[in-house]
């Protein structure tokens, strides 16, 4: 007991000495901490203001490179400011100068560049105005466009200084124009950063300013909230042009400050002052609980020892309880896994499409009954290189073995997704063969193992239906055009008989013939559209110079020499393509160039070619016509879309859609741009002659399909009947076009769509 009292006495004396020393050390530590925190606050405020200035200048520099700045450019350039987390920033605006006389022109210019509904509202006359034409709100809706910043002296002076010094400036503090309608209690001292926009040219012309509005209180609160950690008060003083030093903002924390630090900040072209105050009692190291800890040390040790004894005594019981709880959880997880597995198996069994899953080595982990039914073979083969022979996988031609590296599952194992890959399956269980479409995807990493999954769709009946539809389209076209041919022949005969007796009747018959021609052209166009996708390709080397000359002759040969338009073809190469299909593309594009001409202007067409990639060429058809509006360009290749439907130009809206199908069938691309000299430039790509072998192989594969052969035979018979009917010895039929197939291919007649000399059909 006495020893305990002695220990307590010694402990109290020792604790007192330690506390006295600790308090002296705490004061010194508080001074050091205060200095460090003040430096951190200074660095944070300086870094933020410098970041705002540099971001604003960088954005202004970017805008200076855009000679035709519009709203989309401003929106894209300032979107980074929206994402930059600019604390206290209210809005960023593009501001342009204007005198009283320039206001109407400036308003018209910026309305045309995307400032919809812009109304410039000058505050006075006889002075230079600074109008906000584009505006983006950052943390709140932006200032209305059209506001004259000359209404506020402070930002106006900052704009003048920025233009004069060609650098970013900061304004005197003031109440933002957008905040002046707020209650006084919510108004803040604010300022703006202004960055001039000078293009980097030999003779730069000033374009305006990029202005960033800042609320001082929001800015200081956001910066010091993290640095202060509830320990520092802050006050930010600005230096105005009149020498005054108003307080931009204050930041308060609970406490009675007894320590202070001041530092100067370079903010753009001004020098501001940051004052940091703190209550030393709130700073780390100012207080310590060590005396209480020493006094309570004995009690704490006793409690710790008692706690250890209790833990040792009760640890076995707790361990057993934990094992039992873990066992119950494991059983529940196992039961849930079993239930999920049963559910997955039921779902897979009920899916009508085939689903197969392989691991990273290409071994099948799972495939459902539908997949087994489609493949026709139940047993698996572990080597993926044997899939072709084991399951009987061929290309759609039914003869070419499907390459191992192009199989969707193999591509998916390499990380490449694929859709709609067509594979013919023919084996002992499927002797007649079925055509399937396969989609392959890499296995989701959440599955816990690498692999791939494929979905099989049986499209055999779909392809048969498409072939039947093509035959139906050809027969319908034949049945529709045959009576039209007879009608036109009789109308021509009647016209010749009545030309001198009854001029009105002859005129009516001529209109009937023109209507018949238009209906015939539309039937040809619709038939070409339905067959352009699936008609077999007959790819051979094609001399573009000869083909373009032939198309131009068909289009303009019936015109007098003085009325023929200028069509210039320059050094065109020899490409590999289907002549009939390629002729349709050129006939359509050149026909459009000759049709869509400004009233009173002479048509001019330039056909040029240039290399694009190894083994490919780009053919461009440029005209000086009426052009295509920008908003219509994305849809110009869609079915039944007509960019100038209201301008009185005839057409079906299918011509360019057919061109797109044909070019893509050849593996190329087609597009449209504006012609720099006025008009339109259509361009498409084709393989050069050295790629003929590859395209011929694709043609042979397509023609070898039995369904295609049957469809072609039916179409040839239908076209032969049509030719026989058109060549029937009726008076006046000599003016009708020939129905003979192009190059022995009935698809060539459909795609060429020739027209009578006396009434050239309009291309689309």
Automatic annotation (TrEMBL):
Keyword Phosphoprotein tagged: yes
E.C. number(s) listed in UniProt: 2.7.13.3
UniProt keywords, alphabetically: ATP-binding, Coiled coil, Kinase, Membrane, Nucleotide-binding, Phosphoprotein, Transferase, Transmembrane, Transmembrane helix, Two-component regulatory system
Basic and acidic residues composition bias: residue spans: 698-724
Mitochondrion in keyword set: no
Record PANTHER family: SENSOR HISTIDINE KINASE GLRK, TWO-COMPONENT HISTIDINE KINASE
Name the record gives this protein: Sensor-like histidine kinase SenX3
């Amino acid at each position: 007991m006495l020893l305990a009292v002695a220990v307590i006495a010694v402990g109290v004396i020792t604790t007192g000495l330690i506390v006295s020393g600790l308090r002296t050390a705490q004061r010194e530590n508080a001074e050091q901490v205060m200095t460090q925190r003040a430096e951190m606050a200074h660095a944070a405020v300086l870094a933020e203001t410098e970041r705002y200035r540099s971001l604003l200048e960088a954005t202004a520099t970017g805008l200076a490179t855009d000679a035709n700045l519009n709203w989309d450019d401003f929106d894209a350039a300032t979107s980074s400011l929206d994402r930059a987390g600019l604390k206290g920033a209210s809005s960023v605006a593009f501001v342009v100068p204007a005198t009283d006389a320039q206001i109407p022109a400036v308003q018209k210019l910026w309305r045309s560049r995307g400032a919809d509904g812009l109304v410039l509202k000058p505050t006075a006359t006889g002075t230079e105005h600074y109008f906000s034409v584009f505006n983006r709100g950052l943390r709140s809706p932006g200032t209305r466009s059209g506001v004259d910043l000359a209404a506020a002296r402070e930002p106006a002076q900052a704009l003048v200084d920025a233009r004069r010094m060609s650098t970013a400036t900061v304004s005197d503090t003031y109440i933002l124009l957008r905040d002046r309608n707020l209650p006084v209690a919510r108004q803040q001292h604010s300022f703006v950063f202004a960055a001039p926009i000078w293009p980097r040219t030999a003779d730069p012309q000033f374009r305006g300013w990029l202005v960033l509005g800042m609320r001082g209180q929001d800015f200081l609160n956001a910066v010091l909230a993290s640095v202060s950690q509830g320990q520092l008060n802050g006050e930010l003083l600005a230096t105005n042009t009149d020498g005054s030093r108003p307080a931009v903002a204050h930041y308060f924390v609970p406490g009675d400050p007894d320590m202070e630090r001041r530092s100067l900040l370079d903010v753009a072209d001004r020098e501001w002052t940051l004052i940091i105050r703190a209550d030393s009692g709130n700073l780390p190291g100012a207080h310590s609980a060590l005396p209480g800890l020493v006094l309570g040390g004995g009690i704490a040790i006793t409690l710790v020892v008692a706690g250890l004894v209790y833990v040792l005594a009760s640890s076995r019981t707790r361990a057993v309880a934990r094992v039992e709880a873990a066992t119950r959880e494991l059983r529940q997880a196992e039961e849930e896994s079993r239930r999920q597995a049963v559910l997955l198996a039921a779902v897979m069994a009920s899916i009508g499409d085939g689903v197969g899953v392989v691991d990273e080595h290409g071994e099948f982990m799972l495939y459902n009954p539908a997949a087994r039914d489609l493949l026709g073979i139940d047993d698996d083969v572990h080597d993926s290189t044997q899939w072709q022979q084991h399951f009987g996988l061929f290309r759609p031609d039914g003869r070419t073995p499907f390459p191992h590296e192009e199989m969707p599952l193999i591509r998916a194992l390499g990380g490449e997704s694929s859709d709609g890959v067509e594979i013919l399956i023919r084996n002992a269980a499927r002797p007649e063969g079925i055509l399937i479409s396969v989609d392959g995807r890499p296995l989701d990493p959440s599955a816990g193992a690498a692999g791939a999954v494929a979905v099989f769709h049986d499209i055999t009946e779909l392809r048969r239906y498409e072939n039947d539809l093509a035959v139906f389209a050809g027969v319908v076209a034949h049945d529709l055009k045959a009576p039209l041919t007879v009608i036109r022949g009789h109308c021509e005969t009647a016209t010749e008989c009545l030309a001198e007796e009854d001029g009105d009747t002859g005129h009516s018959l001529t209109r009937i013939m023109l209507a018949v021609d238009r209906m015939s052209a539309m039937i040809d166009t619709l038939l070409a559209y339905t067959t352009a996708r699936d008609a077999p390709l007959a790819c051979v080397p094609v001399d573009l110079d000869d083909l373009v000359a032939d198309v131009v002759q068909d289009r303009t040969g019936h015109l007098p020499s003085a009325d023929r338009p200028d069509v210039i073809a320059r050094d065109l190469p020899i490409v590999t393509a289907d002549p009939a299909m390629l002729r349709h593309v050129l006939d359509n594009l050149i026909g459009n160039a000759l049709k869509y001409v400004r009233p009173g202007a002479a048509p001019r067409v330039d056909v040029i070619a240039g290399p694009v990639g190894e083994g490919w060429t780009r053919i461009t058809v440029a005209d000086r016509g009426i052009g295509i509006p920008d908003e219509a360009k994305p849809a110009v290749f869609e079915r039944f879309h007509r960019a100038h439907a209201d301008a009185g130009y005839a057409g079906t809206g299918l011509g360019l859609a057919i061109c797109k199908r044909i070019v893509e069938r050849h593996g190329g691309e087609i597009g449209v741009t504006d012609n720099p000299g006025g008009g339109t430039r259509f361009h498409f790509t084709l393989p050069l002659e050295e790629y003929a072998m590859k395209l011929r192989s694709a043609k042979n594969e397509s023609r070898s399909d039995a369904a295609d052969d049957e469809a072609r035979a039916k179409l040839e018979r239908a076209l032969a009947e049509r030719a026989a009917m058109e060549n029937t010895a009726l008076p006046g039929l000599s003016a009708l076009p020939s129905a003979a197939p192009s190059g022995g291919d009935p698809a060539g007649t459909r795609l060429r769509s020739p027209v009578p000399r006396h009434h050239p059909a309009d291309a689309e």
